[in-house]
Structure formats: C-alpha cells, structure tokens
What we know:
Order of helices and strands: HEEEEHEEHEEEEEEEEEEEEEEEEEEEE
Structural class: mainly beta
Shape: globular
Amino acid sequence: MKKIFCLVFTLLTTVAIAQNPTTYFMEGTPLRSQWNPAFASQRGYVNIPVLGGLQANVQGNIALDNILCTNGSELLTILSSSVSADRALSGLQDMNRFGIGLNMNLLGFGAYTKNGKNFWSFDVNLRADAGVRAPYEFFDFLKRGNSGNFANMGADINTYVEAGFTYSFPIMDKLYLGVRGKFLVGAVQASFNFDEFDAYLGEDRWYAHVVGSMAVTGTELPTKRLDDGTLVYDFEEFEDMTDMPGGYGFGIDVGATYDVLPNLQVSLSVNDIGFMSWSKKGTSIGQLDKDLEFEGVEVSADGVVSQPRLDLGELNFVVQEAESRTKALRASVNAGGEYNFLNRKIGLGLFYNAKFWEHKTQHNLTASANFRPMQWLHLSGSYSFINNRGSAVGLALNICPKGFNLFVATDMLLSRKTPQWIPISQSNVNVTFGLGINIGKKGLRNAKSDE
Length: 451
C-alpha cells in the first residue's frame, strides 16, 4: 500500500492555487472579477504573464497538524511508525476530506469602453482541482490494526485550460450586472473510488475484499495480462504520458452588485455553472472486485509498528471498454456586503462562499476590515469561519498607482508552522500574488474612490 499512501498524502499536503477570501473586497485587484464578474477593475490593465495572478489554497475539514507531525526538524505523516496511534487518531473526523485547487493566470487584459462604465476583459488561466477522502476507520486500521470496512474512500483530479471573456455593465445607477463565458480545454482527469475495502485479520496475515472503480482521461495507462489472461492496468510501468486535449467544456459565471445605500454595497454571484466532456479517446476505465492478502502488520501494545505491504499494482483494475464522460464543474456561490465610511477610507465587509465538491459542500464565512488610506494603497484584514469553525487571520496589501498593480495576500503569517515553513495549525491555507500594468483612467463607476 505504500504507493497508495504516498499518493493520498501528497494530495493532502500539497498547497495549490485557488481564490483567497481576503481579496474579495480589494477594489484595485484585476482578479477580483473571478469572485464576481460584476466587479470591474478600477482601471484597464495588462497582467504580466503567469505573474499576473498566482493563488494558492488547500481546504479540508481537518487541520494539517492532524496529518503532519514534527519530530525535531523532521516532518512526518501520521502513518509514520514514530507517531503513536493515540496521537495519529486524536484529531481525525468520521470522514476526512481535503481539497486543493489551481488558478494560474497565463494571460489577462481588460479596459473600459468609451462611456467609462462598461468593462470588458479577456484572460487565459490554468486551472486544476483535486479532492481526497478517507474515513476514520482506514487510519484506525493502519495504526491499531482494527478490522473494518473503509467504504467511500477515493480521490479525483481535474486539470484544464480556461479562456474567459467578461463583460459588466450598469442596468441603473445602483445596479451592475456581469457575465463571464469560459471555454475549457481539458488536460487530465482522474478518479479512484473504493466502494468497499473490507479488511480483517487472519491467523498470520491480513485479508481484504476490495470493490472499486477508476477512470483516467488524458494520460495513457499501460496494461498487462495476468496468468489467467485477464487484461489489467499496469501501474508499475506507468509513465507521465499526456495526450492533449482530453476533452472540452463550457462554463459561465453570473453576478451582480447593488448599492443599497451610498455607502453600502451588496453583491451576489454564481460561478462555474457548466460542464466538462472528457473524450473516449485517451480514456482508461477499470473495475476492481478482488480478494487480497498481505503481510507486514505487527500489532503491539503501542499500536501498529509496520504498515501492510501491498503494492498499488496488486489492485489489478480490470480494463473496461472506454467511453466518453461528462462531469459538472465545481460550482460556487459568493455573497457579500460592505459598508464604507470616512469617505471610503475604511470599509467593513462580510463575505459568504459555498463551494460544491463532488461529495461535500464547503462553507466559508469571512469578516473583513478594509483600509484605503490613499487612492493607490489598499490594506485588508480578515478572519474566516470554515464550516462554523474558526480558521485563520488573513492579511492583504494592494499597491495600485497609475503605472502598475501589485498585490499579495495570505492567511498563514500568524499560524503555527513547521521548520519547513508549512502552516499546520489551520485547515485552510491561502497565498495570493499578482503583478500587472495599469492602463487608462479610472472608470466612472469608480470615480467616488477618487474623492
């Protein structure tokens, strides 16, 4: 099982790129329109390729210190034999979930129309998302040797390139609408699901009955024949071979902002409404229904001191006929409200986000304090409550004079970290960086910011 565990914990501990809630109320950032297409940049802009928007995020229902431990300067996972069973299992949930995402801006530019109110933009982004889930019983089996059925374990990954066009415009003085259409080109999609993983201890070894399925598109998987002639996928010979494109899709974001009062604005958007169709060509589909046996689990008074020795290749997913597949995008809902005072130099905001994973909906409520001491200098501080649990303090800085735009945001500065600078005391981690060139004057819809 070593290769399976390495895959799972690589997903659990990797920091990838996604939206940072601290940036929701930062008016000067071009990437703010990704929260809501009705949010227009203060000025026209041209992003520096790749550096125009780098956003890192990892989410889950457990903190990283529930799966990572330190031993001096050494960083260990809870599967290490050096970590006691009590320590490893103490912070786990009934079903443990982690998700990561990616949104890297490869190209981006936008401008106001002649009326100074309508705004358009075009961007190309590299996007990816991944999710992994494992029940408490799975870790209890590994650390204490207790038998169990680890149903509903799995992992899935989606990667694609997105080209989007955004247009926002006023319906009336107080109401702005925005729409963003996105054409998607798929790279790699993979999903592994174990509907049943029933493990139990015999007289001298462990036994397991495993039922599961897998589907991979965009990467060719090698095959082999077993002694009985069954054709299965050969993970031992797997190499990273990508057959682009893996599929095509379309998505749409819709949003609106409304000025309830001169100093109070509310906003609402629904993002990633759409689908990705993965082609039959380059798709590998496998089914698994097999009895396994493996040695190597030694149970002592302190827990399991060695892990089951089962290689990924022994799972032997049986090759099935390939077929095209269509999957919905991971939609999200964003809602916010901000009240400004002292001539908009200070604003207090409240932001709600719901992200719909395939097996779980993640809720986030963020309170924000926003400071604009100068027209070209914006500061934001936030605190998030993830699924009704306190999370981390977020800090953001945006420098946006006429010539350029530089912004950075993170919620990991105040958290406890390992010697490797990995924040392990929180379940959500965000880092954002962007650099672009401002062009033109501020739009009329932002004129009040110049007062």
